[in-house]
Amino acid sequence: MNEALTARQRLEGFVFLGGFALCIPAANWLIGHAGTVCAPEGPCLIPVAPGLMAPSGVLMVGLALVLRDLVQRRLGVKWAAAAILAGAALSGLLAPPAWVIASAVAFLLSEFADLAVYTPLQRRRLVLAVLASSLVGLIVDSAVFLYLAFGNLEFLAGQVVGKAWMVLAAIPFIIWLRNRDARLGLQPA
After folding, report:
1. Cα–Cα distance for residue pair 91/25, rounded to 1 Å
2. Chain center to CA of 8
3. pTM of the model
4. How many CA atoms lie within 13 A of 43 on its CB side?
5. How far apart are CA 132 and CA 149, in angstroms?
6. Residue 56: what are its φ and ψ, rounded to 5°?
């Protein structure tokens, strides 16, 4: 039975890894192509709260932070670190030319910040670990990306709120996963 559970954990881990990888091109595509407002040389924007706009890629970046945590939970910290490095390279390759450095550096720094906060908390307090690590990661990602891509932090509040919505939307799934893992006797990797 333990072998079946290990196989389940690996399969789920690779599903989370695939989702994490898909968030990167999706975020870069959204920033340049989808939003309620799309400036010719700027990002496409979406409303994230009354009177608050953010580049549309924030939704996928918020989801990526949670999926990275789940990759680590299922496959371990080495897989998560490798996914971050691969994700930063992919982000740099797929970002619009003007945002290559900003996208890759912001991704790399924010995901490692997420990992640093998530790792010590996740075995005892999974939901707190996801919330705290995602909060740190989304602030780092937002500030670094905006500063490097645009030279200002004009959309910082919108970036933070937009990413936070995705993290909060994922919490019911995290609670379900934690409870199901406990019921099945699954331990974090």
Report:
1. 7
2. 23
3. 0.87
4. 25
5. 26
6. -65, -20
Q: Which two tokens stand for residue 36?
A: 């309620």
CA 146 to chain centre: 16
Q: What is the pLDDT of residues 173-182, one digit of tens each?
A: 999 999 999 9
Q: How far apart are CA 65 and CA 11, in angstroms?
A: 19
Partner residues linked to 49 by β-bridges: 52
Give the phi and the psi of residue 43 in degrees, each rounded to 5. Answer: -75, 155
Q: List, in order of start, the domains of the chain with CATH numbers.
A: 2-184 (1.10.1760)
Among 43, 15, 67, smallest CA distance to 173 is for 67
- Helices of type H across 34-99: 58-75, 77-94
Strand pairing partners for 45? 37, 55
108-129 per-position pLDDT tens digit? 899 899 999 999 999 889 999 9
Retrieve residue 51's tokens.
Answer: 């009177």
Q: Contact at 8 Å (CB) between 83 and 71?
A: yes
Q: Which residue has the higher pLDDT, 41 or 154?
A: 154
Tell me the two tokens of residue 43.
């990002």
List beta partners, residue 53. Answer: 47
What's at 162, amino acid-wise?
Answer: G
C-beta of residue 77 within 8 angstroms of C-beta of residue 70: no
Closest CA to 108 of 71, 73, 153, 61: 61
